[in-house]
Amino acid sequence: MGDKPPQCAPCPLFAKSFGFALDCGDPLRAKYAIGLEAAGKDEIAYRLTAPAYHDPDRDRYNTAELTRRRKLYPQLPDEFRRKGMALVGKSWGIMAQWCFRRLGIKRDDLLIFNVLRCCPSKSKAGEPYPTGDDRKKAEAICRQYDAALKAYNPKLVILTIHPAALTRSITPLPLLIRSCEKLRDCGAQGIRAALLCGGKSVKLWLGYFDSVTRFQGHYAWLTRDWYNATLTRLRDATMAKSKRSSSAAGPLARRSSSGRRVAAAGGIATLLGE
């Protein structure tokens, strides 16, 4: 058996990407959710069955995670339920050190999910994420692994940069910290919120532009049928012969940092407050 489950065979990345990593966290008990873009090398290398020497908490977490995966993904061979873990390695170290620990957020409090569950190979242009039709088809096929996210069912999303950006420059760190503070505050109010990190994640779930810079720090209430709206938009994108117009997914307004309402791309959310 290869490094990806047979359910991934129709994906254009099946023979071009590496590994497989499911989401992690208890969707029914999680206080917060974090949405990222694609699995990295550390994520696909992780194994739930590997003993964590001198770390019983990690062993306990891995055992509970494997049990959850068996319930959420009965269609997968057990080999692939044991593989991978979202947000480990450098990105987790950054968020744990600079954001979560100071805010009192533990990994047990989090549901962590990716847009793509494999680690894409770089294109000839050096892009680490698929583009064009490959991107649309890959994102659509990966939705079969969204069981944990659908069970969590966030009511609000907060938009921020990807933590990997901090490996290149520490300058955006205050932006990420403030976004995590909003996430904590939502949880304190009993609001099931998700922090969407990076333009690819924001693009998929909201239909915004790829660049998250202009939407950094904004937050939005999701509509009741937000997940089905995402699937519909993905289906239309993969079937369309010409580029979809910006209004195809419906109107969306966003609030700038100054409070002024401005037009934005089509999507599936309405912004918080007037």
Estimated share of beta-strand residues: 5-15%
As a whole number of angstroms, the C-alpha radius of gyration is: 18 Å
Query: What count of helical segments does DSSP give?
Result: 9
Q: Note the main sheet.
A: 6 strands, mixed
Helix content: 25-40%
Number of domains: 1
What is the CA–CA distance across the termini? 53 Å
Shape descriptor? globular
Q: What would you call the structural class?
A: alpha/beta
Low-confidence parts, pLDDT < 50 over ≥5 residues?
244-274
Spell out the helices and strands N to C.
Answer: EHHHHEHHEHEHEHEEE
Number of DSSP strand runs: 8
Q: Biggest sheet, strands in spatial order?
A: 2-1-4-3-5-8
Mean pLDDT across the residues is: 83
Describe the protein.
This protein is of the alpha/beta class. It has one domain (6-271). It is built from nine helices and eight strands. Strands 2-1-4-3-5-8 form a six-stranded mixed β-sheet, sandwiched between helices. Strands 6-7 form a two-stranded antiparallel sheet. The chain is globular and about 40 Å long. The model is unreliable at 244-274 (pLDDT under 50).
Keywords:
274 residues, alpha/beta, six-stranded mixed β-sheet, two-stranded antiparallel ribbon, 8 strands, 14% strand, globular, disordered C terminus
